[in-house]
Amino acid sequence: MKDALVFDDVRFDHGDSEMRFDLAVKSGEWLAVIGPSGAGKSTLLDLAAGFAAPSAGHITIAGRPMAGVAPAERPLSIVFQDNNLFPQLDVFRNVALGIAPDLRLTAADRRRVEGALAEVGLAGFGKRRPSEMSGGERQRVALARVFLRDRQLLLLDEPFAALGPALRREMLAILTQLRAARTQPPAIVMVTHHPEDAVGHADRTAFLEAGAIVAIGPTRTLLSGRADPRVARYLGTLPPERST
Ligand SMILES: Nc1ncnc2c1ncn2[C@@H]1O[C@H](COP(=O)(O)OP(=O)(O)OP(=O)(O)O)[C@@H](O)[C@H]1O
Ligand SMILES: [Mg+2]
Question: Does the C-beta of 39 come closer than 6 Å to ligand 1?
Fold first, then answer.
C-alpha cells in the first residue's frame, strides 16, 4: 500500500528561518504532532494542504505528487480549531457540502447526510445554524462532513483545543468510532498541545522543534521522554537547560 503522505526533503522559508521536513505517514496510520508554539506544526499541515508552497523538495499524497495541485484538488480533508463551518448554512447543508459542493442532493445523498449526523450523535440537529450550537457540537458537524467526504488523509490542526478534557476525550472517541466503521480508515495527522490526546489513539507521535521533526516514534515511547531530552524538556519531565 502507498504511503498516505510523504514529505521528501521539503523546505519552507517564512523569512528568518528555513523549515525542513522529512516524513512518511503510512496508509491508515494515526500520527500525532506535538511541539512548542511556533515550531511549525501548522506550517507542516499547510504545506500538505497546499495553503503554503515548499521552496524545495517533494510532497506526495497517496502516491500522487502535489506540486502545482490546488488545495481544493488535493485528496484530503482538514479540520481546524474553529471556523470550519459556513455560518449562513444550517448544519445539514454544512455536512452536505462534503458530498455535493452545489448542494444538489439526491434522496440517497440526503440519507447519507442524516446518517453522518447520527454517527457523530447529532441526529435531529440538521436545521440548526452553527451559531446555535456549542463549540463541541460544531466540531462534531465538521467531523461528520469529513467522514462523508471519505478522503484517505485527514489533517487536524488542534481541532479540540478549545474543548475541556472530558469533551476532548469524547471527540477522540468519535474519531476512533468513525475510523472503526470503515474498511479503509483514513490516515490522520493530528496536531495537539495535549500529549495525552495522543495516548491510546495515535500509532506514532512526532515532535517538532524550530521547523523540523526532531523526534518521531511509537506514541508511548516518544512520550516517555526517554528517547530524546528535547521531548522530555517540552513535556516538563526534565528541567530546562541552563544557559550559563
Ligand atoms: N504567514 C506567515 N508569514 C511569516 N511567518 C509565519 C507565517 N505563518 C507562520 N509563520 C511563522 O512560522 C513559524 C511557525 O508557525 P506555525 O504556525 O507553523 O507554528 P505552530 O507550531 O503551529 O505554533 P502554534 O502551536 O502556536 O499553533 C512561527 O515562527 C511563525 O511566526
Ligand atoms: Mg499552529
Answer: yes
